[in-house]
Amino acid sequence: MSTILIVEDDETMLKGLRDAFEHNGFKVLSATDGESGLQLSETSEPSIIILDVMLPRIDGFDVCRTLRKRGVTIPIIMLTARAEEIDKVVGLEIGADDYVTKPFSTRELLARVKAHLRRTTEKVLSFERYEFGNVSLDFAAFKTFKNKKQIDLTSTEYSLMKVLIKHRNEVVPREKILNEVWGYDAYPSSRTVDNHILNLRQKLEDNPQKPEFIHTIHGLGYKFVG
């Protein structure tokens, strides 16, 4: 689950954003002034920050500038009621990743947040190697070791693990797995995904009946935790 920090002094807007992001599976933290937002961003380690420009105590520009000076690299999306081009330029120059002018579509903001998180995840994961528990995956050499003993995975199983790891700690619907692993034109059934997940658990989990890493989210899909 990704954690989003929303720093917004308009309580009505804050509530609306909180409801929307929680509904979409985010853990939401919030602050109503810049000073509190700055403190929360450093103590709670959110995945992304939505930051209003016009805030009490410390404005959004100064919050963003301070975070970047302190080495915080997570995505920051700034919100403003002002449409002047100079504000957008300033925001981007001090390190904001994106800029949304009020009024805006919550659906659009949600899409931007997901896009930034996806790009961040892709930067972190090169997919050459990945380790979790007692398992080591080498995607470049197509080699897998569990407890230092080599395990044979199929190319499809490697592709499936890539998708799960890329979206780690997120629920990945079966349809998304089908599209990313098999492609839109293959049209396999969702049962195909279930069978491959079963095989992966047998190979990688210590207790396939009570998986530690590859979780079933009933009615939705799967989630990799590791």
Please provide a written account of the structure.
The chain has 226 residues and is an alpha/beta fold. The protein has 2 domains: 3-124, Rossmann fold (3-Layer(aba) Sandwich); 129-224, Winged helix-like DNA-binding domain superfamily/Winged helix DNA-binding domain (Arc Repressor Mutant, subunit A). It is built from 8 helices and 12 strands. It has helices at 11-23, 34-43, 60-69, 85-93, 106-124, 155-166, 174-182, 190-204; strands at residues 3-7, 27-31, 48-52, 76-80, 98-101, 129-132, 135-138, 143-146, 149-151, 172-173, 214-217, 221-224. The strands form 3 sheets. Strands 2-1-3-4-5 form a 5-stranded parallel sheet, with helices on both faces. A 4-stranded antiparallel sheet has the order 6-7-8-9, with no helix packed on it. Strand 1 (3-7), helix 1 (11-23) and strand 2 form a beta-alpha-beta unit. The chain is elongated, with a radius of gyration of 20 Å. The mean pLDDT is 87.
Please render the helix and strand layout as text:
Blueprint: E1 3-7, H1 11-23, E2 27-31, H2 34-43, E3 48-52, H3 60-69, E4 76-80, H4 85-93, E5 98-101, H5 106-124, E6 129-132, E7 135-138, E8 143-146, E9 149-151, H6 155-166, E10 172-173, H7 174-182, H8 190-204, E11 214-217, E12 221-224
Helix pairs in contact: 2-3, 6-7
